[in-house]
Amino acid sequence: MIIAQRKPFKEISEAVAPYDKILIVGCGTCVAVCLAGGEKEVGLLASQLKLAAGLKGRRIEVGEITVERQCDREFLEPLCDFVADHDAILSMACGAGVQFLAQLYYFKPIFPAVDTTFIGVNEAVGLFTERCRACHHCYLGLTGGICPLTMCPKGLLNGPCGGTLNGKCEVDPEKDCAWSEIYRRLEQQGRLDNLKKIVPLHPHARSTTPGQVIHPAYQRRYSAYE
Amino acid sequence: MADLQRPVTLVEEGPAIGGLMAQLDKTFPTNDCAMCILSPRMLEVARHPLIEILTLTRLTNLSGEAGDFTAHLSRRPRYVDVDKCSGCGECTRVCPARLPDPYNLGLSRAKAIHVPFPQAVPQAAYLEPEACRVFRGKPCEACLKVCPAGAIDLHQTEEVLVRRVGAVILAPGSRPFDARGKAEYGYGRYPNVVTSPEFERLLSATGPCAGHVRRPSDGTEPRRIAWIQCVGSRDASLGREYCSYVCCMYAAKQAIIAREHDPRVEPTIFFIDFRAQGKGFDRYYERARETHGVRFLRSMVSRVTQDPRTHNLEITYVGEDGDLHTEEFDLVVLSVGLGPHPAAAKLAEVCGIETDKYGFVKHPPFQMVSTSREGIFTCGAYQSPKDISETAGQASAAAAAAAALLAEAQTGLLPKAEYPPEREVSQEEPRLGVFICHCGINIAGVVDVVAVTDYARTLPHVVHAEHYTFACATDSLDKMRAVIEEQQLNRVVVASCSPRTHEPLFQENLRKSGLNKYLLEMANIRDQDSWVHQNNPAGATEKAKELVKMAAARAAELEPLKEFPVPVTQSALVVGNGLAALTAALTIADAGYQVHLAALEDRVAFGGLARKQHYSLEGHQYRPYIEHLAARAEGHPRIRWWPNSRVTSFSGYVGNFRSTLEYPGESRELRYGVAIIATGGVEYQPREYLYGRHPRVLTQMELENRLTTEPEIVAESPTFVMIQCVGSRSPEHPYCSRVCCGEAIKNALKIKELNPEAKVFILYRDIRTYGLKEIYYKKARDAGVRFIRYEPEQPPEVEPAGEALAVSVFDQNLKAFIALEADYLVLSAAIRPHPLSSEIARIFKLPFDRDGFFMEAHLKLRPLDFAASGLFLCGLAHGPKYVEESIAQAQGAAARALGILAQKQMVVGGRVARVDPKHCVACLTCIRTCPFGVPRVNQTEGVVEIDPAACQGCGSCASACPRKAIEVLHSRDRQIISKICAIELEEMAAS
């Protein structure tokens, strides 16, 4: 899941200060689960904006709507009437959602209300931790299901650095060393031989942005072939 | 016509229907297999209860008048009873006499008695008496002895049949030009000079060399293949001045396909103008050139000579550089033009209709499908040369015209069967009955039917098994019903032929015995077993057992499905206000249905783009015709017309649509059964060539207007320079606007008519005056209009020169720059889709093609339908076209719409997709996959819903759903899996 964090209110309110009619668009998927941009957060932000404006003696209109996902055109298209009625859009989706919304309603100013942080998991209520860097090449089969690229701050692929101490990381002694964890996991499973394999250079070239994936079943649809 | 509930007699001269298309390999511009898309249509015709097919029959006399004709038909003997013959091919196997196979154009040989081609309809053999030994006085009758059905009757004689009909539609089609008439190309003398239809057979998998192209002289694979265009077209010396429309495109297609078959092929096409005027054609042409490596040489070949030793062919031509070149080829294909079918002349005489000097039907202005005699209509290549999609569209138009004529007449009555109530079986344990068919000796001759029956009795759940000589015979069906009742069977397996032809029959039998029709399963032990394993009876018997076992396993998992009738709202919505919209609305209203005409603009805009013009290339006046239509539409009791309206919502499914119509100051809910989208197009406002910045730069439409309203502008013999393809065939808009060449020539001819001293230069890339419009191109050249060809890499340059303009262009024929002083510069501006069409597309969820025109369901055979059923398109909304073509398309779209309205009620449900809401995650994959736009998100539940009334049961969503939340009923996973798991894998491996 994509994890995001609500931006500080000051930043948001300054961004939309010039507008009197603001539409807040929430997203009902990842950002709703990580408590950053779902229906509830849309309502909160709307009230905050209206109260703040009221304190300054301004009256603003704030529209609220939350769609299933902002990363699918079909869910965004029905918004056109709402968009037309407002001067600016505040999207509470991840960066992908904000951009897709902006692409569709290119004629309206759009502002993000959250900072997209990482791909992670919901460890406990309100606690989200990173697990994946979307690096285009997965090593998890080799490393016992612990990602060296994400979990090791240095992203080392062939064992720990010299800074590991008592299973803790030199970058942040509070954190476990990813490679110590990998070693223990593999040892437990009797797969320590995996560590003898030398992993070649990570194909960073694949991470050239913007990325594109075409599902093999749909190659024909998107290639020049007809 | 039959879908409009009219009984139809289909009269065909040959032994099978399908015409030229049945002989084609692939079709442009999609490269679809011709037979794959035609065959289902032919089967539909064969199965239709209101269609009577008469083969080997011709019309000999037609008396009476529109609404009440008496047709005398003469049927040649087939010597085979079509109703008895199953097409098993036993007779062909034993027949000793051979003849050149007409289906393969004589490139291979066939037996004197044979089924015309594998997918022929009717699927029955016919006997060619000229080749048959019996008819040549020799002893034989081998076929009579082996025919299991007793279908052969050598004593048949010519029959005269009489039918009373209300209307006649003539569609005799065309015959390719006999290339022997062009002796300089050596066809008939040089074995490796073939015609394009022959090459089509060479390419075809069902052709004489099974799809591996081999040259006729020595059977080697040709590498260097040349196509020569315009053989028997655009040729005054042969009296065939017209263009045959399809040859450029089929040559490009054949070249592409030949290279697909063998990448070593080097195709070369010699042509004059490349005529890619249809939808998607220009992209195809560009792809042929850029991607597929087809060499296009703009040069007319004067003759072909043969190397007598190698049978290779030498072609001498003038190249782009102006020099003579000689090149050797392995195979030369002559792209022969189309002419009316030889039998058509007699047909025209019998029907008393007028034809032009080439034999094509003459039609009243703007009415392409009408003829000079009321009640007789025409369509297809008999009207003028045209491609398959135009033909399919026109055929619908002819049906609409005939339906409008016969609106008052009694419609055909389909016999309504009465069924007993369905037995409730879902709580019962499966009790299976297995019925095995001998199909005469078709199955029993190879498969040990008794052994299979005994084996079937041992299968789980099977309580009864027996075998019949013909399971489809009436007495067998009666017995089957008796057994079902007696044994209280609740699932039935029939092991016989193909469900494609016989499933409906057995399903009906189940219904008659009180079982739901979806409790039937068939095992095809004929086509997939006895026919393909004739040499291995023991193996075939084992396979039959396996097939029966699989069918029984699936049958046990079958469940009854509900079908329910839904009444069709008896009205249509037509969106648009152009000529196409008016014509479609009037055609439907005339046929007796209510029409809502949602006009996008005001009354004065009625007639759309056509109204902005005055006369056609053929010289007919538009405005009186439009006024006549508009007045009729306004006064028509069944047309409700809303000017300046917008459709703002759309929901429902075919037969029961709903929309909100908003018009100034008000809005209204509409309910309708079908909708026709005819939003039209607009003329492109050029940004090129100083348009809008110099008063003497006009578009063709503006010029036409000036010539009509102020003809004095040509009094002082000014010079007009016209530039073609402005906004068309460019990298941004890679499509041809189809009409601009004709429009330019129309205006050029008008100028010359007003003042022969005026000078007209037309700067063009390819002149695309296809079909009979070619005649006007010739007229223009004869009248002294100068044509200068330019290449897109060196477009004309225009500079203002005071009042006038200076035009400089590089003439590709002279290979030199030409400076022209133009008093008027006329731009042949492209046709663009109507700006409102994107809004309409969004509301109705309709797809566009890549040029922004609406995309039809199938380019070839469903040119007027949208993929979503119940929605149709016509006119410029579909793509650029001439006025009369728009009218014909509008009539055709109306006919398609009438086909739904005429049903009164539709049966829906049954084999449809069902979503499991517990699994659905609203990923939208199904919504994007469904070709009919049926799945919708239920916003409150957050899941997708599929309306069983709208679902077509194609299964695309079920196979695409990543959560496996969708299943198509009757093809549920467990039904398929149980069938597959029934195969004894180990046993199979051991055998």
What's the arrangement of secondary structure elements?
The complex is a heterodimer of chains A (226) and B (991).
Chain A: E1 2-6, H1 9-15, E2 21-27, H2 30-33, H3 39-55, E3 61-67, H4 73-76, H5 80-84, E4 88-91, H6 95-104, E5 110-112, E6 114-124, E7 127-132, H7 148-151, H8 178-189, H9 219-222
Parallel strand pairs in A: 2-3, 2-4, 4-5
Antiparallel strand pairs in A: 1-6, 6-7
Chain B: E1 8-11, E2 26-27, E3 32-33, H1 34-47, E4 51-54, E5 57-65, E6 68-75, H2 90-94, E7 98-100, E8 109-111, E9 113-114, E10 126-127, H3 142-146, E11 159-165, E12 168-170, E13 174-176, E14 193-195, H4 196-203, E15 224-231, H5 247-261, E16 266-271, H6 281-290, E17 295-298, E18 304-306, E19 313-318, E20 324-329, E21 331-336, E22 338-340, H7 344-351, E23 376-378, H8 388-405, E24 432-437, H9 449-457, E25 462-468, H10 474-486, E26 491-496, H11 499-512, E27 520-524, H12 526-530, H13 537-557, E28 563-567, E29 571-575, H14 579-590, E30 594-598, H15 608-611, H16 622-635, E31 639-642, E32 646-653, E33 656-663, E34 666-672, E35 674-677, E36 681-683, E37 697-699, H17 700-709, E38 719-726, H18 740-754, E39 759-764, H19 774-782, E40 786-789, E41 797-801, E42 804-811, E43 816-822, E44 824-829, E45 831-833, H20 837-844, E46 871-873, H21 883-901, E47 905-909, E48 913-915, H22 925-929, E49 936-938, E50 943-945, H23 956-960, E51 966-968, H24 973-981, H25 985-990
Helix pairs in contact in B: 4-5, 5-6, 8-21, 9-13, 10-11, 13-24, 14-16, 14-21, 17-18, 18-19
